[in-house]
Design goal:
mainly beta; four-stranded antiparallel beta sheet; 3 helices; globular
Amino acid sequence: MHITSPRLTILRCMIAVSYCCILQSCMKWDYGREEEFTIPSHGLFITNEGNYQYGNATLSFYDPTSKTVENELFFRANGYRLGDVAQSMTIHDDKGWIVVDNSHVIFAIDTRTGKETGRIEDFTAARYIHFLNDRKAYVTQLWDNRIFIIDPATYSISGYITVPDMEMGNGSTEQMVQQGRYVYCTCWSYQNSVIKIDTETDCVVDRLIVGLQPSSIALDSNGKLWVLTDGGYEGSPYGHEPPTICRIDPSTFSVEQRFTMRLGESPSELQINGSGDTLYWINGGIWSMKIDSQALPSDPVIPDQGTIYYGLTISPFAGDIYIADAIDYQQQGMIYRYSPQGTLIDRFYVGVNPGAFCWKQ
């Protein structure tokens, strides 16, 4: 993990804790009075990680039309805390699936009320969830060489995909995208490849080495895959190299173009806009690049403000740029909303360490 990458700083502290301690649940239920909500049909959920082992993860919702935000949404709707380190969220079948990695749980909530509808427990350190249909989804893991298969209908773990040539205690699978019958998944922490999974057999059928620590992955309008590698960190026993952005042809499963950054840079959070023709990422400031570009941009669309940009998303509706600012990793974080041209539209406070976004469409 890159020591200067904002989102990875907390994870490096997590690795310092022994593996057996990680497997112990840190969730503490703190019951309170429930509130009733009617969540708008369109808007943005924000998962706020909180501080590792503090159990102070939270959920926020922002309405871009009215420019209003509801914080502590999960706690207020359910009367108990979300848990320890909210990693990501995905919406499927009108349910929001919130991955809380150090509490080893995925909550499902009604996206109209915020009420819990069910949960799946006993993960190692879950990272992201990808739905194949109403009866099957994949869940990636940190510190595990398996991708968990779950049945959303019964809120249960139904199986595992073991990743070849990956050790149990040092394994890592991260973000996923799907094209046709295949899911493509980055293998991030101390890894160097993208794996190809056949969703009909639930088996890894191919592996492509792309560079040290591929974290983010996106699918563009031409059906090409884009992968960001962070390059590891100085002093890592697994190596340190310049970070890259790679374009992969899924039909041949090969790298057809590679953009290389400078050694020591800390890119993260590769995203793509709603039309699938422009990439965005964090590297100090916010950078953007058309998918047909032949070189990396020379200037960011939003300059480095001397703060800690920790998460990024692009509105699939208006193309607005939303940036999560961790500030100091201790106080409430800030979300900045910019136009595609880089003009500030709004800003608002959320929870501690806002790290991931989920659009309700």
